[in-house]
Write a structure and sequence with these properties.
Distance between the termini: 13 Å
Number of domains: 1
Strand content: 15-25%
Largest sheet: 3 strands, antiparallel
Strand order of the largest sheet: 1-2-3
Order of helices and strands: EEEH
Radius of gyration: 15 Å
Number of helices: 1
Helix content: 25-40%
Length: 70
């Protein structure tokens, strides 16, 4: 299942900066728009994987996983 996220992107001075609206803490700064988008995708993938691992670790045992579509 593919997920869709929204990047807020700005060009300020010599830098492109951006962040993901839906996931706090996922942001990047690069010299080009292309590099920024690539960095945001990498940071988002890493954050989602980390969050998944943390959720499973916090549950410890006797849990189920349920898919939610919003």
């Amino acid at each position: 299942m593919a997920n869709t996220f929204t990047a807020v992107v700005k060009h300020e001075g010599d830098w492109w900066i951006g962040w993901i609206e839906e996931v706090s803490g996922v942001n990047a700064q690069e010299k080009t728009h292309t590099e920024l988008v690539k960095s945001l995708k990498i940071a988002l993938k890493e954050a989602l994987e980390f969050n998944r691992e943390e959720a499973i670790r916090a549950a410890e045992s006797n849990y189920s996983e349920e898919i939610l579509n919003v």
